[in-house]
């Protein structure tokens, strides 16, 4: 990578709290990158207004305007390539992207998932963790590959599960850790410390290490 700032496109569907954490990291100098566009598949997504308040260009590509998923994916891919995005950050983007799209951007596409992957792929992770009596939960930042929530994990943040937790309380604590973890990983990528090769994470030149873990310090 040259000395140019990393060009990021952020894909959202909702309020954009992880987007805000990344914006804050850029504005404080924690992240050496530029958000070139925030794209939402939902016109009313709150994250669009967050981006506008910080002078970031936004765009809506409404999935309801496309008869087929593949057509939507092609339009989105074309926009990302026109923007010359170096990294595509999924931040609460509630669309499953097709294999062709993911393969087109493989190694440039990251996501944050609310579990300690590979455990609890898919939805309703907080409810499932509590129902199973788990003592730890958290979130994972991973590269995206065609298999859902199965890409190589870069880093994780861990929170304890309390005996009186509800899904909502647990979700709040996990989300707070997401806001710490995601900007950190984005900066690692911006600094050239993290990449993906042969579907393994390369961290500081070392391949296949155990994901970095960030602890809350809670008991």
Automatic annotation (TrEMBL):
The residues that hold (6R)-10-formyltetrahydrofolate are: 68, 94-97, 111
To which pathway does this protein belong? Answer: Purine metabolism; IMP biosynthesis via de novo pathway; N(2)-formyl-N(1)-(5-phospho-D-ribosyl)glycinamide from N(1)-(5-phospho-D-ribosyl)glycinamide (10-formyl THF route): step 1/1
Keywords from the UniProt entry: Purine biosynthesis, Transferase
Residue ranges of the Formyl transferase N-terminal domain? 7-186
Q: Provide the E.C. number(s) assigned to this enzyme.
A: 2.1.2.2
Q: Which residues form the active site?
A: 113 (proton donor)
Which Gene3D superfamilies does the protein's record reference? Formyl transferase, N-terminal domain
The UniProt family comment states: Belongs to the GART family.
Q: What function does this protein fulfil?
A: Catalyzes the transfer of a formyl group from 10-formyltetrahydrofolate to 5-phospho-ribosyl-glycinamide (GAR), producing 5-phospho-ribosyl-N-formylglycinamide (FGAR) and tetrahydrofolate.
What is this protein's record name? Phosphoribosylglycinamide formyltransferase
Q: Which organism is it from?
A: Spiribacter pallidus
């Amino acid at each position: 990578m040259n000395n140019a700032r990393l060009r990021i496109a952020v894909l959202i569907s909702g309020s954009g709290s992880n987007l805000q954490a990344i914006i804050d990291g850029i504005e404080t100098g924690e992240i050496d990158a530029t958000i070139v566009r925030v794209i939402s598949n939902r016109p009313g997504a709150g994250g669009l207004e967050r981006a506008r308040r910080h002078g970031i260009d936004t765009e809506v590509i409404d999935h309801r305007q496309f008869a087929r998923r593949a057509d939507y994916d092609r339009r989105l891919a074309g926009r990302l390539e026109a923007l010359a995005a170096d990294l595509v950050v999924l931040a609460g983007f509630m669309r499953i992207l097709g294999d062709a799209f993911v393969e087109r951007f493989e190694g440039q596409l990251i996501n944050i998932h609310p579990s300690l992957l590979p455990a609890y792929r898919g939805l309703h992770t907080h409810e499932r963790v509590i129902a199973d009596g788990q003592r730890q939960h958290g979130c994972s930042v991973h590269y995206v590959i065609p298999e859902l929530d199965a890409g190589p994990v870069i880093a994780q943040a861990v929170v304890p599960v309390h005996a009186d937790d509800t899904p909502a309380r647990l979700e709040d604590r996990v989300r707070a850790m997401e806001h710490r973890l995601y900007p950190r990983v984005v900066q690692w990528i911006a600094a050239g410390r993290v990449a993906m090769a042969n579907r393994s994470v390369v961290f500081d030149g070392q391949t296949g290490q155990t994901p970095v873990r960030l602890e809350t310090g809670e008991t």
